[in-house]
Each structure stands twice: as C-alpha cells, then as structure tokens.
Design brief:
The chain contains 3 helices and 5 strands, in the order αβββαββα. Helix content is 5%, strand content 2%. The strands form 2 sheets. Strands 1-2-3 form a 3-stranded parallel sheet, with no helix packed on it. The chain has a two-stranded antiparallel sheet with strand order 4-5. It has 566 residues and is largely without helices or strands. The termini are far apart. Among the domains are: 131 residues, Pectate Lyase C-like (3 Solenoid), CATH 2.160.20.80; 88 residues, 3 Solenoid (Pectate Lyase C-like). The longest helix is centred in the C-terminal third of the chain and has 11 residues.
Amino acid sequence: INKETKLDRKWLLVWEIVNQQAIGKDLRNISLTSIDLEGVNLSNSNFSGALLRRVNLSNSNLSGSNFSAAKLISVNLKNTDFSNTNLTDINLSDADLSNANLSGANLSNANISDANLNYVNLRETKINDLTKIDNKWHLVWQIVNQQPINNNLKGVNLSQSDLRGVHLNNINLRSANLEGANFGICDRNLLYCQVPNIDSNYHSHSNLRKVNFCNANLKGVNLIGAYLEEANLSVANLMSAQLNYAEMSGANLTAADLNDADLRDANLSSANFSAADLSNANLSNANLTNANLSAAKFCNAQLNSAKMNQVDLSTANLTNVNLTNAQLCDANLRHANLTGAILKGVDLSNADLSHAHLENVDLSHAQLKGVKLSEKNRLEQKWYIVWDIVNHKIQGRNLQGNDLSNAQLNRVDLNGANLSNANLCGASLRVAHLWDANLENANISNANLGGVNLSGANLKGANLSGSDLNRAHLWHTYLSDVNLSGANFMGADLWGVNLDGINLSGVNLSYANLSYANLKDANLIGANLSRANLSCANLNGVNFSDANLSGTNFSDANINNCILPN
C-alpha cells in the first residue's frame, strides 16, 4: 500500500502489525476481533485496557509488552513469547497458553485458572497472593523457581509440565503422574532475558538424585541429561521416555517399563534393571557396567556399542537384539535367550554363556576368548569351530574347506594347519601364527592380516585381494598364482620370497622388505615402493611404470631389462 491507499484505521493497523511494523506500538484500549496475527512481532507494545476477542496470536513475540487490565477472550496464545511482559490484572482463565514463554512476566492479580499451561516456561514469573492459578501449575512455578516445597509429593500431577533444569533431589514422587513432563537441559535461552551476569554458555541439568519415582507415570518424559543417580524408578512407566545422556548410576529400575525408551549414551552403571522391560529400547553406547539385568526383557532392543562388562544378564530375553560392538567381558549370560541376536564385533571375553540360546546369532568379528559354552547352546557349527580355535591350541588342525569368514582370530595359533580351500574372507587374523600353514586356494580377500606370520606357508592360488598385510611376515612364503590386487604390504617382511611374474600393480609395498626376493618379470605398474628394501633382489624384466620409487633401496639388485618410471 502507499499514501493514497484508503483503509479503515483498524485494517491499516492490522497491515502494520502483520508486516512487522508495529514493534513498540501504542495500542491502549484497542479492540480487535476475529483477526489472524500468528507469528507477528509486537514486542514492547502497550495493550493496556485492550479488548482482543478470537484473535490468533500463536507463535507471536509479545515480550516486554504491557497487557495490564486487558481483556483477552478466546485468544490463541500457543507458543507465544510473553517474557518480561506486564500481565497484571489480566484475565486468562480457560486460555490456551501451551508452550508459551512466561519467563519474567508479571502475573500479579492475574487470573489464569483453568488455563492450558502445558509446557509453559514459568521461570522468574512474578505472582502474588491474588494471582489465581491452578494448584498443579502453582507447584510447577514453585519447583522451577526453587521455592520451598513439601518433600512428599506422592501422587501429584505434573504431567506435560516444563521442569527443565530443576532440583528435586530426595523428593518423594511415588505414583506421581509425570507423563510427558520435560526434565531436559535448561540453557540461557529458557531464562528471563534480563537475569544479570548469566553466562552465555549457561546450561543446567535436572537434579533428580535419589528421587522416589516408584510406580510413577513417566511415559514420554524428557529426562535428557538428567542426574538420576540412585533414584528409585522401580515399577515406573517409562515407555518412550527420553533418557539419553542421563546419569543413572545406582538407580533402581526393577520391573520398570522402558519399552521404546531412548537410553543412548546414558550412564547406567550399577543400576538395577532386574525384571525390567527394555523391549525396543535404544541403549546404543550406554554404560551398563556392573548393572543387574537378570530376567530383563530386551526383545528387539538396540545395544550396539553398549558397555556391559560384568553385567548380570542371566535368563534375560535378548532375542533379535542388536549388540554390535558391545562390550560384554566377564558378563553372566547363563540361560539368556540370544536367539537371532546380532553380535557383530562384540567382546565376549570370559563371558559365561552356559545354557544360553544361541540359535541364528551373528558372531562376525566377535571376541570369544575365554567364553564358556555348553552342549545346549545350539550354536552354529561355524562359530563353534571359531570358538574352539580361539580357546584351544591344537597343532596342525584340519580346517580344509571350512567357512571362517568374518571370524575374529587375532593371535590364534594355526601353525601347520590345513586351511586349503577355506573361506577366510573378511576375517581378522592380526598377529596370528600361520607358520607352514596350507592355504592353497583359500579365500582370504579383505582380511585383516596385520602382523601375521605366514613364513613358509603355502598360498598357491589363494585370493588375498583387498587384504591388509601391514607388517606381515612372509619369509619363503609360496605365493604362486596368488591374487594380490589391492592388497596392502606396507612394512611387510617378504625376504627371499619368490614373486616371479606376479601381478603387483597398484599394490602398496612402501617400507616393505623385499631383500633377496625374486621379482623376475613381475608387474609393479603403479605400485608404491617408497622406502622399500629391494637390495639383492632379482628385478630382471620388472615393469616399474608409474611406480613410486622414492627412497627405494636398489643396492646390489639385478635391474637388467627393467622398465623404470619416466
């Protein structure tokens, strides 16, 4: 619009408001009916004596404004910012103020009885003896402003209240209704904006240490980062609760319902979860060290990377649970049901799995050293063989054609073993002993062979593509017709090895020892030989095109007919 546009004063004002040109406006005694002002900025405006009927002010900024003696009838005030606002003598009974910010607001003599104050921020809000407010919200106001309260709050209703950063340690909230309450982290933005000397990085975690939540309704509650050490949450309803990053060491969660709860990164050390229901819960990266998990239900739970050393999981239901990379050293899993569980990369060192149900478990890269098994485990034969290799030293094992793919076999002794035609794809054999082993035609692709001892081993026709042989020992290893594409031999010891005519194009041989090796007619196009030792090697006819030869030692080597890089 322009200066010539003719509008009634009322609609001109509305245009100014919705176009963000009414900040600090004098609107005393204004009358507005059935107008949508959602999301407007009317901060620091004067509404004293105004009449607003069926006006939508949701998501609006009214901070610092003056509403003294104003009448707001059927006004939508959801998510509205009333911080530092003068609301004295105002009547907001039955109003919907859910998620509104009333921090620093003055509600002296105001009537907000029967108003919807779900998730309202009442920090630093001013009330007096004449303020009409429901008992529930008066208690919330007392709590968030650290006013004196009764330590016995048994059975109170604090559902859907904003309790972020509160201090309630040692309070009795037995059987209380806290469904959907927000006990999350309180930062500077939640506080009354004119609190002096507040640090810009201020944040406060709710202090609920030793609180009695026994049998309380905490369904869907936000307890992110809360301090709940030694709290009593036995038989509590914590379905879909947000407990990630919570400090809960020593807490009592006996028979608690934690179905679908979020416990990621929570500290649950020494907590008691006996008979608790953790079905569908997410405990990724949680610390459960020394926790009591006996008879707990974990069906379909996420426990990947969880720290569970020395836990008691006897008789626990862990069917289809994801325990990828979890730590279960010295854990008690006797009689536990692990049917269909994902145990990839899990550390089960010295764990007791006697009589545990292990049908269809995936133990790829799992650490099985010291694990106790029994005849009733029903473990797949593949993983039983892996367990046997890891725990029993037997010279010259016959493992011909066995499937050992993705097995964790670090440091095992397989000297002289027959592994011909075996599948070791993706297996980890770091620092393993395979001296004089027969690996003819074995599939060892993408395996981790760092530091492995393959001296004197037979690798004829073996597939080592993509494998990591960093610092491996291959003295006099037989490598005829072997596939080494993409293999990493950085720092490997290949002293005296016969590599006649072998294809080593693109292979990483940096820092490798190839002294006295026979590389006659080998293909080393694009190979990395930086600082490799080729002294006294037979390099007759080797193709070094595009190879990296920086710092390579060729002393006393036979380099007749070599093709060198340009």
